[in-house]
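Incident review: delayed structure delivery

Summary: a single-chain prediction request sat in the queue longer than the usual turnaround. Root cause was a stuck worker, restarted by the on-call engineer. No data loss occurred. The affected request and its eventual output are reproduced below so the record is complete for anyone auditing the incident later.

Affected input:
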Amino acid sequence: MCGVIGIIGNSPVSERLYRGLLVLQHRGQDSAGIVTYNDRFNLRKGNGTVTNMFNPVVLNRLQGNTGLGHVRYPTIGKGSPHDAQPFQVNSPYGIAMVHNGNITNYCELKEELFSKNLRHLNSDSDVEVILNVFADELHKQPGEFSADKVFKAVGEVYKRLKGSYSVVAYIAGKGMVAFRDPFGIKPLVMGKNRDEYMFASETVALDYLGFQLERDVMPGEAIFIDHKGMLHERRIQKGKHRPCIFEYVYFARPDSMLDKISVYKSRLRMGKALAEQWKTKGKKADVIIPVPDTSRPAALSFSEESGIKYREGFIKNKYVGRTFIMPNQKERDSSVRHKLNPIQLEIAGKKVLLVDDSIVRGTTSKKIIKLLKDTGAEKVFFCSCCPPIKHPCIYGIDMQTKKELVASDRTIEEVRKHIGADELIYQTIEGMVKSCQVGNPEIEEFCTACFNGKYPTEDVTEKDLEDIGKKRSGERCEIESPAHR
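Output delivered after worker restart:
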């Protein structure tokens, strides 16, 4: 999961891209990058957070009224600086690109590009594959440049790519194109401010920069803004809309609207649904405490529905990043205690009902429960806003191997014992989906593959899962040189 942003306008964009990335920082802390255009591409990217990578001097060098930005959360490769986005190619025209998602046939496409001597790739980032496939298809289009040729190239990209992808690219001197995979798995929104356009992963970036939300980019749709500011749009491939439900559970900011659905309201509804389940257990708790920050809305509505008082039990160190998106387990483990400090007066001697957004690996949950009991909690009841995560995500969330998922081979009771809770309640899939559906009834289904193994891209094989697991561990695709065939 990453954060993307693109602005095409008539005033300098580098400082605005920087501020937009700051509000998308929650989507990735591993690397950051900005590219602008003023008759040439001006690029700055590398490992680190947005504030690590940019300062006034650097931003001043990124001249231009058009540009792209990216924050990366690594799901494949080793997180090398070479994998940081944006990426660019010189031909045709010169193209820069950013992307959020995960290409499941990455190795196959990389082999194809190499074996045909079409393109040489220098990273383990799948956006480089998307960029080169798009450039290859655009290069094949005969005649003068036009929006129609851009749409035809995107159509060919849809035929060749598998997986999830929300893409924003700038074609030098021609215009900006944004497109979303046929299932709309990853979010992408479009905003406008007078005669300037902006694309972003979440509406919060539009709000922050003063752009009005126009709409979500539709699944299988491409939108092209030419250099004169004219908008061209085409629904190229219609698929069943299956947005990732984990955006609403955890990833997106609560003040965002994705696919016409309020993230905040969906989390409130998840808490209410959990409270209904709690009532059937016949247990009594003294206090409801959220694991900050994503589970606060759910814990609040849980309290209102159940009548159990809500209290803050942890103070969060704002200078420690999101534990889940840290690149390895060692960093996750060490950061939990640095991140959260308990408020003893709200915990000691009490039966605590702890609300969290999810249980993925179980390591963080286990440490938080132990922290509560070490602080004097009499009992700890754990409620998860989403169901047991049993299957790998192949679309860009860092839970890509079954062995790392605590619920993949355990019953709920076994998970309860493993994390040390006195009671464990999981949200049902039905309750979670219903909580997110309000606001956009057109979405009949979400991507819930990590819970039930039903992948929107239905041709997922065991080999695909194995290859993606290898990519996540940093193994490179084995490409055979044509000279040695």
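Verification: The domain at 3-242 is CATH 3.60.20.10 (Glutamine Phosphoribosylpyrophosphate, subunit 1, domain 1).
Action items: add queue-age alerting; document worker restart procedure.
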